[in-house]
C-alpha cells in the first residue's frame, strides 16, 4: 500500500510494505517509483526503564532481524525524511535532515504500544502508548552521497514525559538516507569511536613489531658472533699445532 503525502513544495511517499534489501538484514525505504531512498543496517537493543516512586525497573528489548520498514522520501534541501522499523508493539523511527552538502540523523523516536503490560504498571489512568525521544543524535552525520558506518556501540538516551526512559544501543550501524538512483551504500564515513579503536590497535601493534625486529637482530648478532668465535678458535688451534 502506498500513501501519498503532499506538502506545498514537495511530495513524499509513505510505503507501508515490508521492504528488506537482499543484502544481510539491510532495511530500505522506497518511493512510489520503487527507487530506494534510505538504507539501514543495524542491531538495536533498548534498555527500557520504569521509574517508580521507590525503585527503577528495567527490561531489555531487542530488535529482531526481520522487521517492517516504511517511511518517507524526499530530496529537497532542508526537508526531513524518516524510516520506521516496526516489530510487535514497538516502533523505532529514524528522522533525517539534510542541507546542500550533508545529512544528519536529527532525532530518534521509540514508540511502545501497551507499555503498561511490560511492567504491570498503570500510568496516567492506564495510558498505554509511550513515545520516547532522543536527547541528541546530530553527531551521526555524513556528506550527501556518503554512508555513516560505526562498528562500535552507539548509545542514545531516550526520554519521555511519562515515568519511562531508555538507553538505545546501536551496534554495527550502517545508514544512508537521501539516496538517488542507487540501491547501494556509498563510501563510508567512520564514527570517531572506530577511528580511536583502530588507532589504539595500530599503536599496540607498533611496539610488538619493533620488539620482534630487535629480537631478530639480537639473535642474528649472537649467531654471527658464535660462528665468528668458532672459526677464530679453530684457526688459533690449528696455528698452534703447526
What do you see in this structure?
The structure is a single chain. The protein is α+β, with helices and mostly antiparallel strands. It has two helices and 15 strands. The chain is globular, with a radius of gyration of 29 Å.
- Helix fraction, binned, reads 10-25%
* Tally of alpha and pi helices: 2
Which residues form runs of ≥5 with pLDDT under 50?
Answer: 1-19
Give the total of beta strands: 15
Q: What would the average pLDDT be, to the nearest integer? A: 79
Give, in order, the helices and strands: EEEEEEEEEHEEEEEEH
Radius of gyration: 29 Å
Shape: globular
Fraction in beta strands: 35-45%
Short description:
The chain is an alpha+beta fold and 242 residues long.
Keywords:
242 residues; alpha+beta; 13-stranded mixed β-sheet; two-stranded antiparallel sheet; globular
Per-chain topology:
Layout: E1 2-6, E2 11-15, E3 27-30, E4 36-51, E5 56-62, E6 68-72, E7 80-87, E8 90-98, E9 102-112, H1 116-119, E10 130-134, E11 141-143, E12 147-150, E13 154-159, E14 164-176, E15 188-190, H2 192-241
Parallel strand pairs: 12-15
Antiparallel strand pairs: 1-2, 3-4, 4-5, 4-14, 6-7, 7-8, 8-9, 9-10, 9-11, 10-13, 12-14, 13-14
Amino acid at each position: 500500500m502506498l500513501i501519498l503525502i503532499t506538502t506545498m513544495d514537495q511530495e513524499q511517499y509513505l510505503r507501508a510494505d515490508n521492504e528488506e534489501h537482499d543484502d544481510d538484514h539491510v532495511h530500505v525505504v522506497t518511493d512510489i517509483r520503487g527507487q530506494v531512498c534510505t538504507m539501514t543496517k543495524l542491531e538495536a537493543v533498548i534498555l527500557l526503564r520504569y521509574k517508580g516512586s521507590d525503585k527503577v525497573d528495567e527490561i531489555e528489548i531487542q530488535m529482531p532481524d526481520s522487521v517492517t520498514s516504511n517511511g518517507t522520501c524526499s530530496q529537497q534541501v532542508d526537508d526531513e525524511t524518516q524510516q520506521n522499523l516496526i516489530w510487535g508493539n514497538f516502533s523505532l523511527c529514524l528522522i533525517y535532515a539534510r542541507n546542500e552538502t550533508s545529512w544528519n540523523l536529527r532525532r530518534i523516536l521509540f514508540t511502545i504500544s501497551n507499555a503498561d503490560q511490560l511492567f504491570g504498571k498503570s500510568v496516567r489512568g492506564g495510558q498505554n502508548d509511550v513515545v520516547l525521544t532522543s536527547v541528541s543524535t546530530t553527531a551521526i552525520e555524513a556528506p550527501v552521497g556518503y554512508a555513516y558506518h560505526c562498528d562500535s556501540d552507539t548509545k542514545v538516551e531516550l526520554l519521555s514525559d511519562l515515568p519511562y526512559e531508555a538507553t538505545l544501543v546501536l551496534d554495527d550501524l550502517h545508514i544512508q538516507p537521501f539516496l538517488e538512483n542507487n540501491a547501494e551504500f556509498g563510501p563510508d564515513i567512520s564514527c570517531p569511536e572506530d577511528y580511536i579503536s583502530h588507532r589504539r590497535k595500530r599503536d599496540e601493534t607498533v611496539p610488538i613489531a619493533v620488539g620482534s625486529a630487535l629480537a631478530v637482530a639480537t639473535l642474528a648478532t649472537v649467531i654471527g658472533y658464535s660462528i665468528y668465535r668458532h672459526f677464530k678458535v679453530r684457526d688459533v688451534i690449528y696455528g698452534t699445532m703447526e
